[in-house]
Design brief:
Strand content: 15-25%
Number of helices: 19
Mean pLDDT: 91
CATH superfamily of the largest domain: Bira Bifunctional Protein, Domain 2
Structural class: alpha+beta
Helix content: 25-40%
Number of domains: 4
Radius of gyration: 25 Å
Distance between the termini: 60 Å
CATH topology of the largest domain: BirA Bifunctional Protein, domain 2
Low-confidence stretches: 429-444
Oligomer: single chain
Bound molecules: serine
CATH architecture of the largest domain: 2-Layer Sandwich
């Protein structure tokens, strides 16, 4: 048996010994990537560094990273897909390449000092080669040199042994994967990666290509290593479970559901599936709500994903026979916070918000769910729910489209999705389709415009602290190619004069043509120097600090811990204009602004 904490700790200790800097998990919300809603892989926040930008912590890194994978949402309910996952990873940014990467994984897994796995229980695959890149003979030879028998080395194509890019374009490459035999029976001599008893536990990606918009694979400036161990899966496998929900990460949740529903986990497949969906969705919702960027349920972007997760969980709770008054979502959320708050202190810190928002969303949905289900029963006489009907379920009864689709599927009825989108767009300027596109979209849209809006965000933050006071603290930031959005702590609506002052302050700094300087320091040093910003790194870690200095006035205009990118000089921003203000939550306001 190995405990969750022990596994995380061993992984970090091992790579620390191999001279890797341990970096913190970033927020789940990508700050500077308008093309993705959530961080979906350990390497996702490191894309600029894999492409060649210097990382302040060095060229050898390791961590565990919070990830949300929305692509798998339909698969949730099986034994090993999850919306929220933790990724253990180590990286070489143009430092070591194939041999050390493979040797490190082998040593960590098999050495007595570390996981002490019997090598007879391991098999590996390498990239088989195709028109874009050759068979990875080098990786195969390294495995052989470590004593892995030929019949335990498989070779598969792009589908299996290639990873990335995380969006449409970006760093990617062939990978070599390690599989663990989880059955009690003796492992067969010949390894078959398609046999479910061989479970993939580690993916070592040799990121040496950049996929271009045209679909070509160009060699990267530097050869990188990106490895990933899906934590839930590895923990289950190492403890001999085929079902991740049997591990300590989920058990308190399935037990909680057993108590609430008076049903047993592991008896009836349909009940099990519902319990797994509820546990998965509530856990993911807690991590999204508990993130320092504080997303709340809404009909847009991350908020929409969150809403879908909560509502789907609530619906399954009712289906399991769990009564409304039990507030199941919140009861389960408390358990999630208990399981994780030592590893992710932000959950403890933000737990009131997590419980309040969950409660609100559960109540809101509860008030319409029954009626909506009745309404739904009346529909689909001719085996189709048209766009108007699906939209009514959404707008009047709060049914996310995907829930209507799911209910319809159970009755073998179709839903006119295009018709729904049309209705939706007619009612709302910004559409859910926008959110959908972001899952598919390319990563790291670091266009000039994003950098400009990003620098403008720092100026806006500084301006608000001048105009409203130093209680103003960032709560969230989101940039698209068109506008910036900034959430911050402040109780009241800004009046006309405050808006004007803020705008003028920013435009004054733009006119002054101030340069932006980037430095690397430890978090401790940065804080002592007076830097602000949302950051997740610990005190000793090295980070980038962006400073805008006004030499004429001899003052620091803005100093923030931030990953960038930014423009070189404020004169590149043009004219700054605040276009909208809203309240997002108690004590938190939102501004949207553009550059003209
Ligand atoms: N990026 C790869 C993955 O997510 C390896 O870290 O599997």
């Amino acid at each position: 048996m190995i405990k969750a904490n022990e596994l995380r700790q061993k992984f970090l200790d091992f790579f620390r010994e191999k001279n890797h800097a341990i970096i913190s998990s970033t927020s789940l919300i990508p700050e500077n990537d308008p093309t993705a809603l959530f961080i979906s892989a350990g390497m996702h926040p490191l894309v600029p560094n894999l492409l060649g930008e210097k990382h302040p912590a060095g060229t050898r890194l390791a961590n565990f990273q919070k990830c949300i994978r929305t692509g798998d949402i339909e698969e949730i309910g099986d034994l090993y897909h999850h919306t929220f996952i933790e990724m253990l990873g180590n990286w070489s940014l143009g430092d070591y390449f194939k041999r050390p990467a493979i040797e490190y994984s082998w040593e960590f897994l098999t050495s007595k000092k570390w996981l002490n796995i019997n090598p007879d229980k391991l098999g590996v695959t390498v990239f088989a080669g195709d028109q874009d890149a050759p068979l990875d003979k080098e990786a195969r030879d390294i495995w052989i040199s470590l004593g892995v028998p030929q019949e335990r080395i498989g070779a598969l194509g792009k589908e299996d042994n290639w990873w990335g890019p995380v969006g449409q374009t970006g760093p990617c490459g062939p990978d070599t994967e390690i599989f663990y035999w989880i059955s009690d029976q003796r492992p067969p001599k010949k390894f078959d990666p398609k046999d479910a008893r061989w479970v993939e536990i580690w993916n070592n990606v040799f990121m040496q290509y950049n996929k271009t918009k045209q679909g070509a694979f160009e060699p990267l400036k530097q050869k990188n290593v990106d490895t990933g161990m899906g934590f839930e899966r590895v923990l289950a496998a190492l403890n001999g479970f085929q079902d991740d929900y049997r591990t300590e990460l989920f058990k308190p949740l399935t037990q909680g559901l057993e108590n609430l529903s008076e049903k047993k986990y592991g008896v009836d497949e349909e009940t099990d599936k519902m319990m797994r969906i509820i546990a998965d969705h509530v856990r993911a919702a807690v991590f999204i709500l508990g993130d320092d960027y504080g997303v709340t349920p809404s009909n847009l972007d991350q908020g929409y994903i969150l809403r879908r997760l909560i509502r789907r969980a609530v619906r399954y709770c009712r289906q399991l026979g769990i009564e409304v008054k039990t507030n199941a979502a919140v009861a389960l959320a408390r358990k999630v916070v208990e399981i994780y708050s030592k590893t992710y202190p932000e959950l403890e810190h933000n737990k009131d918000r997590v419980f309040n928002e969950l409660q609100k969303e559960e109540d809101k949905f509860e008030s319409t769910l029954e009626k909506g289900l009745k309404e739904f029963q009346k529909l689909g006489k001719d085996r189709l729910i048209d766009g108007k009907e699906a939209f009514k379920l959404f707008s009047t009864y709060g049914f996310p489209l995907e829930m209507t689709q799911e209910l319809a599927q159970e009755k073998n009825i179709k839903v006119d999705v295009k018709g729904f989108e049309k209705e939706y767009q007619g009612h709302q300027k910004l559409s859910r389709a926008g959110a959908k596109q972001k899952f598919k979209g390319g990563l790291a849209d670091e266009t000039e415009q994003t950098a400009r809006l990003h620098t403008a965000t720092h100026l806006l933050h500084a301006a608000l602290r001048q105009v409203l006071g130093s209680h103003v603290e960032q709560r969230g930031s989101n940039i698209t190619a068109q506008r910036l959005r900034f959430d911050f702590v402040h109780d009241e609506k800004l009046n006309h004069e405050q808006i004007k002052k803020t705008q003028d302050w920013v435009n004054d700094k733009i006119k002054k043509a101030l340069s932006i300087k980037c430095e690397e320091k430890t978090v401790k040093q940065a804080k002592e120097d007076g830097a602000i910003g949302i950051f997740t790194q610990k005190y000793g870690e090295r980070v980038k600090v962006y400073t805008i200095h006004d030499p004429g006035a001899k003052e620091i205009v803005s100093m923030e811990i931030c990953g960038g990118p930014h423009v070189q000089n404020t004169k590149e921003l043009g004219h700054f204009e605040i276009t909208k203000q809203q309240a997002v939550a108690a004590g938190v306001r939102r501004l949207k602004a553009v550059l003209k």
